[in-house]
Structures are given as structure tokens and as C-alpha cells.
Design a protein that fits this description.
alpha/beta; Isopropylmalate Dehydrogenase; 2 domains; eleven-stranded mixed β-sheet
Length: 335
């Protein structure tokens, strides 16, 4: 696989992106195209080559003169910065010179640029950002987590179809349980959007189990969680905040009492195991489903391990031929 990486995207760019690319080529047989300002990339490669031995022939560089910043308006940046590192990555995929692209940059811009250069998969109304989320059995996937804040029931139906295909093809879940995120498990609970979306999902060729509440997501009651981007983003950000709060509570409790210090080494080992289960860096990024080319969008605060894993996820995405399956399933239902 040939993977294009937006070197200039993210809060810690370009350092962690180049290091992550090096880690990816060391661990896999994929090739990586580093896209960004050539002089910046050259300096980074020289810096990291002192620390790592890696197959340099599997890393190439493509120049991009512009950068889309994290705080820029997505649509404006996509339209006006046509030589941004993000745009050049998309063009490489559109032209068949790369199989997938990865960016840790502005997620809204990544979606806007993808729509501009890769276009929608035929039949898809709205692409969706889908985040793998930890639960007691492993991970589920939440669709949508911020791409579409105002939705119609038909959109949520397509989100469920696309999430179901990703869960099967990439996450290896044989018969994913699909559910709508709502305010109660009963069919009568929810707003007009969730009630109508549930009716549509019942009629689709899915293992639809109905509504679930926010607290049911980490309990592994469903594999594909369907919601609009507003609800999904609030759920995701709240969960991240709670995880940080609990971690700080535990650390502060240990520090507050000398009697706990003796148990600290054992607690540290246990916390490491817990952290590994919920660590976003292990996932790497969120797939953008519904555009005509594999794309993984990472967190702006990602480290090099997250970048490496995002590249690995992008290769898996590209190999699975998900987009063809999405087009077939969406058009089957539309037809």
C-alpha cells in the first residue's frame, strides 16, 4: 500500500508525523509519501534518521506550499488553499498515486477537502466521521461524531449502513449489532429524528437492536452506534473528559496518602493495562466513510504512535475495498 501523510497537520506537526511515518515503515511493508514543505520534511528526516534505522527507499516526499491551520474555517480553507498539504494528499489518492491518506489536522477541513477532490461515493448523501470507541469487550464504532450536526432520518439510515460495513470489513465483527443512541431503550423514546431513523433502520438489512442510552455504549450493548454529529460529538468529548478526570482522581488519591504509596507500583501496572484498552493512540484515527477514497482523520493532539497506527488503519481500510461495498449497499437500498 502507498499511504499519503499530511505532515503539516496537527498540534504537534511536523515532528510527530515524520516520526510516526518512520515507525510505520519499520513495522509494516507499506510505503509512505510525506506531503508538506520540502525543506521542513528534509530537516525532520535528517533529525529522525539519527535515532532510527529505517528503509529510506519506502519514504518519499511531495512538496505542498500551503498549510491549513487547526483554527481555519474548513470550507474556506478547502476552496482557497489548493496547494495545502491536506489537498495534495487528497489529489494523490484521486489520481491513483496513493491508496489512502491520513491527516492529524483540522477534521472539518479534511472532510471538506475530501469532498472537493475525492467526491462522495455514488448514492451517499453525507459522509460521516466514525470513531472506534472502547467498551468492555473491545471497541464499537460511533457514527457520526461531528461531521453532520443537522441530519434527516435518511442520513442516519446511511450512517448505520456504512458503519455496519466498516465494523464487518475492518473491525472483524461478523454480525454487528446496530443501535440508535437515544434517551431511552424504549421504541417510544427520543426526538423525531431518532424515532423516524429507528423505523428506517428496522426495515434495512441490518442486525438492528433498537435504541440504547449513552451509558450502554461502554457496556458493549451494540457494535455500531448511530447518531447525528451533534449528539455524537458531545458524547465523545464528554467521555474523554470523564476519562481524564477519573485518571487524575486516582493519581491524586495515591499522592494524598503515604499508605497508598506502597501499592503504587502494582496500581501503576493495572493502570497501564486499563490505559491500553482505552488509549486512542492505539486506534490512530477515525475513518471518514462515504467519500470516494480511504481517509483516516487523527486527533490534533496525536503522538507519533497514533500517527503510526493511523497509517496502519488507513492501509487496512484501503485493502478492505469498503467503498465499493458501501456503494453497492446504499444503492441497493435506494433502488
Amino acid at each position: 500500500m502507498i499511504l499519503a501523510l499530511d505532515v503539516m497537520g496537527g498540534d504537534k506537526a511536523p515532528d510527530i508525523n515524520v516520526e510516526g511515518a518512520i515507525l510505520a515503515v519499520k513495522q509494516t511493508d507499506n510505503n509512505v509519501i510525506l506531503v508538506g514543505k520540502e525543506d521542513v520534511i528534509a530537516a525532520q528526516l535528517e533529525k529522525w534518521s539519527r535515532k532510527y534505522k529505517f528503509p529510506k527507499e519506502r519514504i518519499s516526499v511531495v512538496n505542498a506550499t500551503e498549510v491549513i491551520e487547526m483554527d481555519e474555517h474548513p470550507a474556506n480553507a478547502a476552496r482557497h488553499k489548493k496547494d495545502s498539504s491536506m489537498a495534495v494528499c487528497c489529489k494523490l489518492v484521486a489520481e491513483g498515486k496513493a491508496d489512502a491518506f491520513v491527516s492529524m489536522g483540522n477534521s472539518g477541513a479534511a472532510m471538506a477537502v475530501s469532498l472537493l477532490y475525492l467526491k462522495r461515493i455514488p448514492g451517499v448523501s453525507r459522509p460521516v466521521i466514525s470513531v472506534p470507541f472502547p467498551n468492555i469487550n473491545g471497541r464499537c464504532i460511533i457514527v457520526d461524531t461531528g461531521a453532520n450536526v443537522d441530519c434527516k432520518p435518511e442520513h442516519l439510515l446511511q450512517f448505520g449502513i456504512m458503519g455496519n460495513i466498516y465494523a464487518k470489513s475492518v473491525m472483524g465483527i461478523r454480525n454487528p449489532r446496530v443501535a440508535v443512541l437515544s434517551i431511552g431503550e424504549e421504541d417510544t423514546k427520543g426526538n423525531e429524528l431518532t424515532l423516524q431513523a429507528s423505523e428506517l433502520l428496522k426495515k434495512a438489512d441490518l442486525n438492528f437492536i433498537g435504541n440504547i442510552e449513552g451509558g450502554d455504549v461502554p457496556k458493549a450493548k451494540a457494535d455500531v452506534i448511530v447518531c447525528d454529529g451533534f449528539v455524537g460529538n458531545v458524547f465523545l468529548k464528554t467521555s474523554e473528559g470523564i476519562a481524564e478526570m477519573v485518571t487524575k482522581f486516582i493519581k491524586n488519591s495515591i499522592k494524598s496518602n503515604p499508605l497508598y504509596w506502597g501499592a503504587a507500583p502494582f496500581l501503576k501496572l493495572a493502570m497501564k493495562k486499563v490505559k491500553k484498552k482505552i488509549d486512542y493512540d492505539d486506534v490512530g484515527g477515525a475513518p471518514l466513510l462515504g467519500v470516494n477514497g480511504p481517509c483516516i482523520i487523527g486527533h490534533g493532539k496525536s503522538n507519533s504512535r497514533a500517527v503510526k497506527n493511523a497509517l496502519i488503519a488507513a492501509a487496512k481500510f484501503a485493502k478492505s475495498d469498503i467503498n465499493k461495498k458501501i456503494e453497492e449497499e446504499i444503492n441497493k437500498f435506494n433502488g
